[in-house]
Design a protein that fits this description.
Blueprint (H helix, E strand, L loop, with lengths): L2 H9 L3 H12 L3 H48 L8 H27 L2 H6 L2 H24 L3 H12 L5 H11 L10 H65 L4 H7 L8 H23 L2 H16 L2 H14 L1 H7 L7 H11 L2 H19 L4 H28 L7 H9 L8 H9 L3 H30 L1
Amino acid sequence: MDPGASCSSVASPSPRALFLQLAVCCFPPPAARVPQEGIKKSLILHQKRMGFFSLFLVASMPIIQVLFIGVVGAFLASGYSNVLTTSARRDMNKVVFSVFTPSLVFASLAKTVTLEDVISWWFMPVNIAITFMAGSILGWIACNILKTPQHFRGLIMAFCSAGNLGNLPLIIVPAVCDENGNPFGRDRGICRSRGLSYSSLSMALGGLFIWTYTYSLMQKSGKLYHKMQSKSIQCSVDSDEEHSGQDEEQDKGGRPAAYADEEAPLPTSIKPGEQREEGQLEAPLLSFQSEVADKGFWTNLKDAVHQFIEELMAPPTIASMIGFIVGLVPWLKSLIIGDGAPLKVVQESLQLMGDGTIPCITLILGGNLTQGLRKSKLKRTVIIAIVCIRFVILPLIGMAVVHAAYGLGFLPHDPLYRYVLMVQFALPPAMNIGTMAQLFDIGQEECSVIFLWTYLVAAIALTTWSTIFMSILS
């Protein structure tokens, strides 16, 4: 046999060997693909971590802004500056209530509300009503368990029910649309536009609920508190006159007052301070309840109608009704809204005044905080209960409500709309509660302390719930 031929036959690969070499080159074994898959998984995990960190910054930024402006207000009200004095904060609050807040509410409603949106987004007012109802019930339960004073119960129910449906969604929702990997569509422009519309309607509807329901709660608490104060002063004056009359009678009888005190000592189980405090709180409350019970049905009905009309005449409520009318009537809207509107300057002027609402409210709250840290009478358990209701129980209720409404076909398929509905359950308390507390002179120091702790917790809680909501909707 020729050696050259044998060598050539050995060197030339068979068709089967060529096929195996081609298969190995095109489809490497799993061991060779493991590093590439590990790199891809690590990149995905890194992107998720970066997305969570970006979302954390986005959600916490408006909270940090509120806290920063509040610190500025606290400094202006302190002894170092003494700019925001008590009278200055009271006058500033009246301007916010009468001018800035109505301007903000009207400008938002007139610009964003349309008849088509009201029809297609009909569940949003129902959702907001559920947040107020659930928060009020939970707040009422907390008040009964913790035995809070009667004049603080309306305040606590307001903090548990009224969320910040205004500036926080306007900042958070559009910013979430700008993030990479959001579950609301790749077109950021469309997502941002829809998010602004949802948030604006949320702010407008929230303002309507706050300036009717929450306003009524705070007004009743203020009236009860001032009635109790006046009754306690009257009771203390009567008791002083009675003691002075007894002393005079004892002097006339020839027995010294000190000797009479020795014969009737105070019981050791009740301290004088506690006895006086109970007399100041319980006696006015009982007299107030008896006065309500003594009134007839028609008198109570007349008082209720009068109070309802009084609440409707509040400037923010009037602005809400006018804003809805302008937004729903096309020819009225064309007079004010739009580039070619003849009365465009009215809308721009109102918008300019409305932009000062949030900074002024936050400065006032910061100024009240300097007194609240020293004079607050709320227990720690009350603050903990408000935090748990707002950031634990209500978000869970919100997820259940939105999921059930979507399952029943009440909601459109837009995941951004469902995200806004769920976020409405996880927001910190509304800033306008502080305006009402200053207006009715009820629990101003307590309001500042509650705002401080709820907004500190909201920096983490709101971010966490936003991430959970997005993961559910993605």
